[in-house]
Design goal:
There is one protein chain. The chain is α/β, with parallel strands linked by helices. It has a single domain (about 5-205), classed as Aldolase class I (TIM Barrel, Alpha-Beta Barrel). The chain contains ten helices and nine strands. The protein has helices spanning about 5-10, 25-35, 50-55, 70-80, 95-100, 115-120, 135-145, 165-170, 185-190, 190-214; strands spanning about 15, 40-45, 65, 85, 105, 110, 125-130, 150-155, 175-180. The protein is globular and about 45 Å long.
């Protein structure tokens, strides 16, 4: 498992963010950090995604990755902008090959045994599981773990405070991605205090889950 994956495993959650204005990037990072989660996956779903990654990559106290990376060209662009890891919704072999060849941590989306076979072929040991809830959630992950015991997962999609304990209770889940901590409307409305509150609430839940599973 690479160093980025280890950092994610320590945090247990990765806020997945769609940001509309680069001017909000620093305040978002401050809000999440104050709540105890100095990390974000900034998606390329908006035009502000790439410049926001570039802005946050200058911070030594914040782990910033790029999400919704759909091809090798985007992978190169976000890496040039300073992204420390790459997350993709699906498994694009060309994108994964570019990341592996350039030693960029990548967590491609997987949702089937075929995807997991490809992950093994590329030497990956941590992948995204997406869309987690729509693809059967914890039940599917348990089924995957049987034949693919060397692979660990970062489930994303439909995860929230209510079902987070179910996922984090699985030892082969390093952490979960989700938007509940920093929803787009909260960012756009400047409700950064609420983002801090949600992050802190999530951190507290993670502590409780750890104490139950220790």
């Amino acid at each position: 498992m690479n160093e980025i994956a280890k950092q994610i495993e320590e945090l247990k959650v990765v806020p997945v963010v769609a940001i509309e204005s680069v001017d909000d990037a620093e305040r978002l990072a401050d809000a999440l950090s104050e709540g105890g989660i100095p990390c974000a996956e900034i998606t390329l779903r908006t035009e502000a995604g790439l410049p926001s990654i570039a802005a946050l990559s200058k911070r030594s106290d914040f782990l910033v990755g790029a999400g919704t990376v759909n091809n090798a060209e985007q992978a190169a662009a976000v890496t040039d902008a300073g992204s420390q890891f790459i997350v993709a919704p699906g498994f694009n072999p060309r994108t994964v090959k570019w990341c592996v060849d350039n030693k960029v941590p990548v967590f491609p989306g997987t949702s089937s045994p075929t995807d997991l076979e490809q992950a093994l072929e590329f030497g990956l040991d941590v992948v995204k599981f997406f869309p987690a809830e729509a693809m059967g959630g914890v039940k599917t992950l348990k089924a995957f773990h049987g034949p693919y015991r060397s692979i660990r997962f970062m489930p994303t999609g439909g995860i929230n405070m209510a079902n987070l304990p179910d996922y984090l209770s699985l030892p082969y889940v390093i952490g979960c991605g989700g938007s509940w901590m920093a929803k787009s409307d909260l960012i756009a409305e400047g409700r950064f205090d609420e983002i801090t509150r949600l992050a802190a609430e999530t951190v507290q839940l993670v502590k409780e889950i750890r104490s139950r599973t220790a």
